Amino acid sequence: MASASTTAPPVAQGAVHGVAPLRAGQGTSFWLRRLHSLTGIVPVGAFLFEHILISNSTAITGPDAYAKQVAFLGGLPLVFFLELFGIWLPILFHALYGFYIWYRGDGNATEYPWSGNWMYTAQRWTGGIAFVYILWHTYTMRFTGVDLHAAPAASFGKVQGEVFQPAMLIFYVVGLVAASWHFAYGIWLFCAKWGIVSGEKARKHFLYACLAFFLLLTAVGLASLASFRSRPQLLFEPGTAAMQTPHSSAKRTSVNQTSVIQASVNQASANTEGR
Known about the structure:
The longest helix is centred in the C-terminal third of the chain and has 31 residues, at about 200-230. The protein has a single domain, classed as Fumarate reductase/succinate dehydrogenase, transmembrane subunit (3 helical TM bundles of succinate and fumarate reductases, Up-down Bundle). Strand 1 and strand 2 form a beta hairpin. By secondary structure, the protein is mainly alpha-helical. The protein starts with about 30 loop residues before the first helix and ends with a helix. It is built from 9 helices and 2 strands; from the N terminus they run ααααααααββα. A two-stranded antiparallel sheet has the order 1-2. The relative contact order is 0.11.
């Protein structure tokens, strides 16, 4: 009589639960998987590192510091091609091929409830959420409304225009957490699959470091969002260099209205005296 243990697929000795090695593949499959794994770290991961921990964190200091960072990035040589080949195309390839791998793969989180399998499943879902978030954020910030490369002073107010909407704020928070998790746990998967970190104990310790990195990314990102929300909302007038708050705008409108009224009173007085 066969034992019950024979019904489960065998697990190679020393294998790490939930971490499948890079498949050899055939033809171009091997290189596509290698490229997919690598682009998750460079340049996509490097972009997230810079965007969250460097650029967005300047918002904590205030609008001026944030505008200076946007002006610096917008002033880089051949910035459009840097974005195209260093950000947009790598993200598009990594996301689309990741969806293909997800479609071809078989999830086993419920059949084998190891923590690694649950985390690997979370990696797939957070990747999808992060892709939608990055796509939306890039489109609205880069290709709609004021051109921030031409008017970096409008950058703080433009982001505020999104996060001051409750639904968009929730979307930003969910997208931030998803992108942070996908990147941080992706570093661990990359190092485990490529053999950079070997051994059960070393991988466990490195996993703790990656989880700490996830918390750091999330904390800095949330602090940046809080800075956009906590400061008076800035409005940008296209075609001018004016940056103002709704309060100052209302105040100026009130002053103008008062001047018009006063001018009308003076004109009425002059007409009366003339009679």
